[in-house]
Amino acid sequence: MQKLTCEKCGTQFNCGSTPERSCWCMKLPNMSQQFDLAGSCVCPDCLTLGKANAITKQRKARAKQRQQERDLLR
Fold first, then answer.
1. pLDDT in the model for residue 4
2. Model confidence, pTM
3. 8-16: long-range contacts (C-beta < 8 A, 24 or more apart)?
4. Residues facing 21 on adjacent strands
């Protein structure tokens, strides 16, 4: 197990990669979508925060679109 530093926030975290198994991050989707996990390592918080922000933004955009469609039907 390696001690790494997150390239996004600077937090130290453990990489679980060994010759026999891949790291924990390979079991998670690339949730931030801003990171190429093959080329950079980010901590679990940065990985999930990016996805949470993207989901919130997407939900707001969909809600706005649905409201616009309802307004057109009136």
1. 86
2. 0.49
3. 8/35, 8/42, 8/43, 8/46, 9/42, 9/43, 9/45, 9/46, 11/43, 11/45, 11/46, 13/43, 13/44, 15/41
4. 18
Q: What is the pLDDT of residues 7-39, one digit of tens each?
A: 888 999 888 777 787 777 776 665 555 555 556
What residues does each domain of the chain span?
2-73
Answer whether 32's CB lies under 8 Å from 50's CB.
yes
First to last CA, the chain: 60
- State yes or no: pLDDT of 62 exceeds 70: yes
